[in-house]
Amino acid sequence: MNELERRYRAVLRAYPHSWRAERGDEMVATYLDAAPAGRTVPSIMDIADVVRGSLRHRLAATDAGLAVRGSRIAAELALFGAAALAAVWFCVIELAAMPDDYILDELGPVQSLGALAWASWIAVALAGTVLKGRPMRIAVGIALGLTALTIPAPAVVPFFRPSLTVLVPQLALGAVALFLSPRRRLRARYGIAVAVLAIAAIALSARPWEDALTYRLGFGDDYVLGAAGVLLGTGAVAVAVARAFRRSADGLWALLIVLTPVMLLLMPLIGRVLDAPGLAESWIGVLIIAVAAAVATVSLLSVVVRLGLRRRERARA
Amino acid sequence: MSTPLREPTFLILTALAREPLHGYGLINEVAALSDGRVTLRPGTLYGALDRLTEDGLIAVDREEVVDGRLRRYYRLTEEGAGTLTAETDRLRSNVEAAGVRLRERGLGFLRPEGGSA
Fold first, then answer.
1. Which residue of A76, A83, A277, B2 could cross-link A196, Cys pair, CB 3.0 to 4.6 Å?
2. Residue B25 falls inside a structural domain
3. pTM above 0.80, yes or no
């Protein structure tokens, strides 16, 4: 074995072991045949070719249907998370009086521009009992749009809006909810609607009526977001485990997809625990979320791809 | 495999229509068939060979070891020949339709040499 062949074999380690065992010798021979005389190291183009080919091979092993099913499971979890949080914010904060030292006006019976966004998410959860397919996705899109518009709105109207630590996770959850299945199961449609109504009722009954509240003062929205993150993350893990028992990796895809919203929800609480309350709104915080999401995504994706490769090998055998 | 075929796939099947070829032979034949326009790299080639084998359009014909290098030859299967024929008919029909429309516009460059519109 000459040096060039040894180096091509090293580069081919980008492919799974099973693939190399079947195709490795043949592919190395083809690279050697195509290499100009005198070459001692693989060209950059050849290395890029191997990396591209191995990625394509690994991704081809994953089932497109699996990703679609996973995104639909994630969408149900995200819709529930978005509507449940909206119910808490609307009932506990928006209906409360603002502290006296706030310079901005209240917006009628509610505190801020966030009320419209929260009401739209609650309405979407309830509308899910009758709407399906495209109309339901449009409803989710409208709620998402209203939430997004809340961010720049104070620049043009003299009203208050919820903090970004509250709005950004809501946008992330809403974006995932756009993947709702056109044929949602009855139990998911009614289950989410009933659960959101129950959460709203509990929030209303548990609300400290005598206190003036806002998103940042006296209430601890970090804990609400953190609890939502823990519950959503735990729910996604439970679904992944349950689906794994049924020999399906779609729950892992769902977990992969909800991971970023979950981390956005957990960020303010992590900031509080680390004694850095502004972490979630700082560039460092955003960077931490991005890196953590990337690491978690790549780790989970590699698990899903390994499962796919193993299934493919079994099918071939 | 669904049609229309992508150009590299079409050219690989066309290259194998005459005789079984190994990887490097296929790369050269595809380049020749496309006048050098399509240059397959081994990573792309073996990805395509995997798919075509799984779809039953090609099969391993034989293996040889030349100068210590493994050469695996691939041949077109009956199913592969059928797919190539169907795709060729589809492309021919499209070319003929385009020729008719261009002649109607007075663009005669699709005429055979020395022929008339």
1. A83
2. yes
3. no
